[in-house]
């Protein structure tokens, strides 16, 4: 299989992961600013979404409409449809021109939510991953981790209407968290675990230390 991650001159692909309310959106800008200060072109994006068509799929996925519940398989396939579009139209072209892509969630979220949360077989997810990514993997994944109850309190305080995923119960999010932690400990070279329960200042200090370390090894 062609491993695109090794092309010379290619940019780097950084993902932020974690359950709801751990601070991904809050810290995405911080990561982008760190990189921009070092003079690289930064592309900030998210999944599901990132292009107009992929954002349309995102709306289908998050819509809590109860008249027609979304089947688990349809959910999985929509996520990978959005991902295929996002990779083709935005991520691959950006990496190819040397930009650094910073993405709010990627396929680790699929293993965590659809695998851990919904109970879909890992092999099915891995098959779609191979089909859609063709060897492309994040170079660095920051996993923001904290206890589920405390993160849920942050979501409540954030106060937006809850989307289809945010309406899940605590045991769903506990399963999500456990899969993330298992994946991080089985791929320590790619993952950095950040204690997201700390104050924002301390979280950002931890992220900065990790990025500095990683940047040093990269340049
Ligand atoms: N370290 C922190 N301490 C306290 N509150 C935080 C911290 N990080 C983020 N928040 C707040 O928690 C809420 C959820 O953060 P957000 O970035 O939206 O999480 P996510 O994107 O992971 O769901 C927001 O209201 C945000 O302002
Ligand atoms: C990328 C991805 C997201 N999701 C879900 C998790 C989130 O609840 C939802 C939207 O992501 P996001 O906007 O990052 O959620 P939040 O900011 O509330 O943490 O999509 C999956 O279930 N599988 C996936 O592969």
Describe the structure.
Keywords: ATP-binding, Kinase, Nucleotide biosynthesis, Nucleotide-binding, Transferase. GO terms for molecular function: ATP binding; dTMP kinase activity. Its EC number is 2.7.4.9. This is Thymidylate kinase. It comes from Modicisalibacter ilicicola DSM 19980. The chain is α/β, with parallel strands linked by helices. It has one domain (4-218): 3-Layer(aba) Sandwich (Rossmann fold), CATH 3.40.50. It contains eight helices and five strands; from the N terminus they run E-H-E-H-H-E-H-H-E-H-H-E-H. A five-stranded parallel β-sheet has the order 2-3-1-4-5, with helices on both faces. The longest helix is centred in the middle third of the chain and has 25 residues, at 72-96. It is globular and about 50 Å long. It binds adenosine-5'-diphosphate and thymidine-5'-diphosphate (TYD). Residues 18, 20-26, 154, 157-158, 199-200, 203 line the site of adenosine-5'-diphosphate.
Residues in β-strands, percent? 5-15%
CATH topology: Rossmann fold
* Total number of domains: 1
Estimated radius of gyration: 17 Å
Protein name: Thymidylate kinase
Catalytic activity: dTMP + ATP = dTDP + ADP
Function: Phosphorylation of dTMP to form dTDP in both de novo and salvage pathways of dTTP synthesis.
Domain Thymidylate kinase-like: 16-207
């Amino acid at each position: 299989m062609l491993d695109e991650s090794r092309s010379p001159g290619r940019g780097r692909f950084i993902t932020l992961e974690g359950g709801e309310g751990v601070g991904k959106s809050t810290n995405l800008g911080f990561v982008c600013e760190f990189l921009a200060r070092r003079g690289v072109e930064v592309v900030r994006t998210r999944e599901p979404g990132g292009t107009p068509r992929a954002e349309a799929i995102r709306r289908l996925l998050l819509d809590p409409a109860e008249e027609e519940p979304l089947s688990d398989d349809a959910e999985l396939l929509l996520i990978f449809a959005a991902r295929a579009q996002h990779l083709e139209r935005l991520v691959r072209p950006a990496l190819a021109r040397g930009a650094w892509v910073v993405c709010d969630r990627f396929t680790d979220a699929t293993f965590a939510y659809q695998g851990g949360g919904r109970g879909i077989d890992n092999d099915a997810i891995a098959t779609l991953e191979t089909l859609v990514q063709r060897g492309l993997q994040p170079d660095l994944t920051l996993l923001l981790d904290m206890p589920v109850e405390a993160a849920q309190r942050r979501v409540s305080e954030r106060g937006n209407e809850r989307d289809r995923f945010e309406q899940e119960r605590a045991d769903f999010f506990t399963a999500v968290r456990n899969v993330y932690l298992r994946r991080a400990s089985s791929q320590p070279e790619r993952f950095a675990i950040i204690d997201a329960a700390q104050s924002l200042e301390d979280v950002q200090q931890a992220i900065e230390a990790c990025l500095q370390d990683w940047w040093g090894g990269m340049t």
